[in-house]
Every structure is written in structure tokens, then in C-alpha cells.
Write a structure and sequence with these properties.
single chain, alpha+beta, 4 domains, five-stranded antiparallel beta sheet, three-stranded antiparallel beta sheet, 12 strands, 59% helix, 10% strand, extended
Length: 610
């Protein structure tokens, strides 16, 4: 749910801002309206320095030479502790780029100069002083004519199956040759290799320095966080309005209602005048979401799209249930669910990934349960196994409904329920924000579609007589048509409402059909993952042949492990992307959710202001 906010206006003397903001940061619950970007040289410098640290930290953490063939040499190079790790990291990174480029260029030069062998540039220079010029040529073997050696003072230096390298020497001023001359090598391959070895040595030293700088990363992260908090407070300071010829400063802030009493009590001890009132949509208050332990795991998905505006609904509870269900259906394999649970517990031990552990375990548990219902375990159809208990088989969805696969029908039914819930939510919040009369158009569509689904379900199971069903349909149709075509906007003329209703009808009918069919991906992805898992099982079984304990078992295990690992990775990717799409596109569109709210960011302690 969206936490209600209280809006504060603080009035104080201009010289008291620094201490005031410091005192507010100690409370840790006041969101001061900040400037949206750096406002002067000092704030720009803070942002630049924090950005430099972030980039340097990323480069240091990305330095991984565990597979470098020269790892032993790198680790053996002594590196003194750095007094300025940021500058050293930037300098070392620049040197790495330069030396790597030089090393690659020298490698190409060595390859080009290798065929010329060892030669003496000084001797060539002395010949030139005597009037003799040495020229270098490279031609394909097909174009090389051995008769040239009879016409010119020519010496073949190197040749292979495709190319011939040769030189000529002449003092004839009218000298000409039927092949274009190539640039003479500036030095031998051996001399170039010496340069490359020096560059390689510098590269190893740079890599050693980057590895040594990893010890400085915690301190750099602490400094970066300090600068960001300082910038945050500086921007809050800059967001104050000047009044009474700048002798007074006015700040605007927001406090969650549950913390209002604590803030009010603290403000009574400060030299400040304050006004407060309940925040409204026009105040653009920050959004703080308050959810339970289960739904809180899925708040990261809400933030991926955008937090709700103050008068909207919190989509996290709906996301938590349906994303979990959709993810599990797309995975569709109980065995993969067990693997995800194991991976989730392993993530608890991985630095920086521990926060994802509960979510992965929950998704794994949901996948295991749905996988049992879909009767698939590592690609095996467990509904056909004789040793599976009868009570468990009763929980499995098998067979067909109306000639269609039961699992496909289930996907469409879940999609219809999801969309109907979105429409109900839209109607509830439209009524709350616009009033009943202002939301008659929304009510019309909800009654028509949601009511139609309910009546159709009742009629399908024969719960009421056909005559009663007929009259319910007529009443629903008339009431819905009135809301859609006549009263969709009570401030417009009926003719305009009819035109707008016809256009909305076209968009709704064409869009709603596509929305419902989109949920077929839940069935298709689960089916594809199960079939691919079964294919790996069949391929692995082929390696066993007639049985026994031969080498076939090694390939059997290898194919199973590698095959299911690949299938698990692909299933996880699809099971993450497509449920997000169904929630972000189909559900949010039909519920009217915009997600344009701003995140609640209270001032934090731990930094000086300026």
C-alpha cells in the first residue's frame, strides 16, 4: 500500500540551514524536496567525484586475470600500497588501454616483418650512400616470375605456398620493375619483438596494480557513498526558497504519517517555524510503499516500471501473486523448482546477492508446486508413473477441455481473471478519484466485461435458469451501454459521448482479444521447456545402449547435466521476461496504472553538509 504523507513547510533564518538539515538527517524520515540536478560548481564537483569513484570501482572489480596465462608473473610483481587509489586506478586503466593497443600493433608488425628475416639497416644505408637502392617486394606465388632474377639483381628472402618476399638492388636511375614496391621495414622482427616484450612487461605491471587496488575498493565505496549523501544534502539545501530579502529560508518536505509524531516532537526542540497538512496529489509527494514480508520481495519489480502516483494503487500485491504464478507456469517443471530453491539458498552466501535469495527461493517453491500440478519433473511426465500416489495425481491437470489441452485452457482462464481484476481495480480507483458520476464510463466497461464473464460462467455451469440468465444479460447490456455511450463524460454533449464511446469500443474490442491471447505464452513456454527437457532425457538414454556400466554412463550423466542446465537457464530467462510483460503491459494498461510517482528518499546521516 502507499504510505500516507504529511507535507511540511519549514521557515528558519538563512544562517541556520546547515544545522537544520543536519538535525533532520538524524531523524532519517524527512524527504526534503531537492533540486533536480547540480546547481553550481560545488554540487557539480561532488557529482563528478562520486561518478569518478563509481567508474574506478567498476573497473577494479572487473579486473579478473584468473585465466591469464601470465597469472603467476602478475602475482609475483610487488606493488606498494596506494596513497590515492582513485588516481592510481584511472592512471592504470589508461595505461592498460594504451599498452594493450601498442602490444596488438607490435604483434601485427612482427607478423609483417618475420618473412624479411634479419637484415642490417645500417648496411642498407651505406649502400644508399654509394648510389645503390635496395627495394622490397611482396607478390603472390602465381604472379612471381623466376625469369626476373635473370633481368634484375634480385634475391628471394622468403617464400611459402602463397607468397614470395624478395629484394632488388640497383644504381640505375631509370630502374623500373613490373611489381609495385612495398614500404621497407623500419626494423627487423627481432627488434620489434624486443619492444613488444617491454610493453608486455608494462602490461603485467598494470594488471598487478589493478589487482592490488582491489583492497582499496571498500574504502572507495565508503567515500563514494559519503559524497553522494553530501550531494543529496547539498541539493536539499539548494532547494530552499529565499524570503524576506534572503534573511529567511523556506524548505518543503514530506514525512510518512506513521513518523509524523516523532518529527513533530523533534521540531519543537529546533529553532524553526513549521506548517503541516495532509499531502495531496498536487503536492507531488514522494511514494513510500508499505508491504508485508512476502510482497516486499517483489517491490523491485514495481520500481522497474515506476512507483505509483499518490492517488494510484500500489501494484506490488498484485505483482507478487501473479508474477509468482506466471513465472512458475512458464518454468512448469518441479525439478527446476528444486534447483531454484537450492540456488536461492546458495545466493545467501554470495556477496551482493543475498537480498535476492528470498525471492529466488520463493520462485523456486512456486515452480515446484506448479510443476507438480503440470506433472513434469526434469522433463519426465510423472502423471504416467505408476508409483505416484493417487491423491497427487488428482492434483495434476491432464487431458483436454472442449478438444483443447487443459493446460492451455487454464492459461486463458487465468488471463481472463487477471484482466478482470485489472478492470475492477481501475473502477475502484476511478470512483475514488473522480467520484461515481465521473467514472460512469469505466463502470460501463467493467460491468460489460467482468459482469459478462461472471454471467457466462454461471450459464456454463447451469447454476441459474436460462430465462434468468437472459434477463441478466439484457440488463447488463443496457446499463453498460448507457455508461459507455451516453455518460462516459457527464460534462459533454450526448453526441460527443456516443462518438467517443464508438471509438473506445473499437479500441477495447480489438485490444482485449489480443490481451487475452497473450496469456497463451504461459502454456507455450511451459510446454516448450518440458519438451526440451524430455528431448535431453531421450538423447541421454540413447547413450546407454543395451545398459551395463560402460562409458555410456559418463555421456548419459554429462548430457543430462549440461542439457538441463542449458534448459534451466533458457526457461528462467523466458519465465522472467514474459510474466513481466503480462503484468507491465496487459495488467497495467487495463488497470489504468501510470507509474509516474517519485521514490521516497529521506535525508540520511553520516556526512557533513558543506
Amino acid at each position: 500500500m502507499i504510505e500516507p504523507m504529511t507535507r511540511y513547510a519549514f521557515v528558519l533564518l538563512s544562517g541556520d540551514q546547515t544545522q537544520f538539515l543536519s538535525d533532520l538527517s538524524e531523524l532519517g524520515v524527512v524527504d526534503i524536496t531537492r533540486s533536480s540536478k547540480p546547481v553550481d560548481a560545488e554540487s557539480a564537483a561532488l557529482l563528478t567525484q562520486a561518478d569518478r569513484l563509481s567508474k574506478a570501482i567498476s573497473r577494479i572489480q572487473a579486473a579478473d586475470y584468473s585465466k591469464d596465462p601470465d597469472l603467476k608473473e602478475i602475482l609475483a610483481i610487488p606493488v606498494a600500497p596506494s596513497d590515492d587509489p582513485l588516481t592510481d586506478a584511472e592512471k592504470t586503466q589508461a595505461q592498460l588501454v594504451t599498452f594493450t593497443s601498442e602490444f596488438t600493433a607490435l604483434q601485427k608488425e612482427i607478423k609483417a616483418r618475420m618473412p624479411w628475416g634479419a637484415f642490417d639497416n645500417e648496411a642498407i644505408g651505406r649502400l644508399g650512400a654509394l648510389g645503390y637502392k635496395v627495394r622490397f617486394y611482396t607478390v603472390s606465388r602465381k604472379l612471381f616470375d623466376p625469369a626476373w632474377a635473370e633481368q634484375y639483381p634480385l634475391q628471394v628472402v622468403q617464400e611459402d605456398d602463397k607468397t614470395v618476399w624478395f629484394v632488388t638492388i640497383s644504381d640505375d636511375p631509370s630502374y623500373s620493375f613490373p611489381v609495385a614496391e612495398v614500404t621497407a621495414p623500419a626494423e627487423t622482427a627481432a627488434q620489434t619483438r624486443e619492444k613488444q616484450e617491454k610493453v608486455a612487461s608494462e602490461l603485467l605491471a598494470c594488471k598487478a596494480r589493478m589487482l592490488a587496488l582491489k583492497e582499496a575498493v571498500p574504502g572507495m565505496e565508503k567515500e563514494r557513498d559519503r559524497l553522494l549523501k553530501k550531494l543529496d544534502r547539498y541539493l536539499a539545501h539548494a532547494g530552499g526558497e529565499g524570503a524576506a530579502e534572503n534573511h529567511l529560508a523556506i524548505f518543503h518536505g514530506f514525512v510518512p504519517d506513521e513518523d509524523d509524531e516523532k518529527v513533530t516532537k523533534a521540531l519543537e526542540e529546533m529553532p524553526v517555524v513549521y506548517l503541516k497538512q495532509q499531502a495531496t496529489l498536487q503536492d507531488d509527494p514522494p511514494i513510500k510503499l508499505k508491504n508485508n514480508a512476502f510482497t516486499r520481495m517483489f517491490s523491485v519489480l514495481t520500481d522497474m516500471y515506476g512507483r505509483p502516483e499518490y492517488n494510484e494503487f500500489d501494484p506490488t500485491p498484485y505483482l507478487s501473486v501473479f508474477f509468482l504464478l506466471f513465472f512458475a507456469m512458464c518454468m512448469g517443471d518441479a525439478g527446476y523448482g528444486l534447483l531454484l530453491i537450492i540456488i536461492g539458498f546458495v545466493l545467501k552466501k554470495v556477496k551482493g546477492m543475498a537480498d535476492l535469495s528470498p525471492l529466488v527461493v520463493t520462485l523456486g517453491a512456486g515452480t515446484f508446486v506448479v510443476g507438480i500440478v503440470m506433472h513434469t519433473f526434469f522433463g519426465v511426465d510423472i502423471s504416467a508413473l505408476p508409483w505416484i500416489p493417487a491423491w497427487m495425481k488428482k492434483c495434476m491437470i491432464t487431458g483436454t477441455i472442449g478438444g483443447f489441452e487443459a493446460q492451455m485452457v487454464l492459461s486463458l482462464v487465468i488471463g481472463i481473471i487477471h484482466l478482470c481484476l485489472a478492470m475492477v481495480v481501475k473502477t475502484v480507483y476511478a470512483t475514488r478519484n473522480q467520484g461515481f458520476l465521473g467514472s460512469l464510463g469505466v463502470w460501463g466497461w467493467t460491468l460489460l466485461i467482468v459482469g459478462g464473464v461472471i454471467v457466462g460462467t454461471i450459464a456454463l455451469f447451469g447454476l441459474v435458469p436460462a430465462t434468468v440468465t437472459k434477463w441478466i444479460v439484457i440488463v447488463l447490456g443496457v446499463v453498460s451501454a448507457a455508461g459507455i455511450f451516453l455518460f462516459n463524460d457527464i460534462h459533454r454533449s450526448p453526441l460527443k459521448n456516443i462518438g467517443a464511446g464508438l471509438w473506445e469500443t473499437y479500441n477495447t474490442v480489438t485490444g482485449l482479444l489480443g490481451d487475452v491471447l497473450s496469456y497463451l505464452r504461459l502454456y507455450a513456454l511451459g510446454l516448450a521447456g518440458g519438451m526440451l527437457g524430455k528431448a535431453f532425457n531421450d538423447i541421454a538414454a540413447m547413450t546407454l545402449g543395451d545398459g551395463g556400466f560402460g562409458i555410456g554412463w559418463i555421456f548419459f550423466i554429462l548430457i543430462l547435466v549440461v542439457g538441463h542446465a542449458l534448459n534451466l537457464a533458457m526457461c528462467c530467462l523466458g519465465a522472467f521476461v514474459h510474466p513481466l510483460r503480462l503484468n507491465f503491459l496487459e495488467f497495467f494498461k487495463n488497470s489504468g496504472y501510470s507509474g509516474k510517482g517519485r521514490t521516497y528518499r529521506p535525508l540520511e546521516t553520516g556526512t557533513e553538509t558543506k
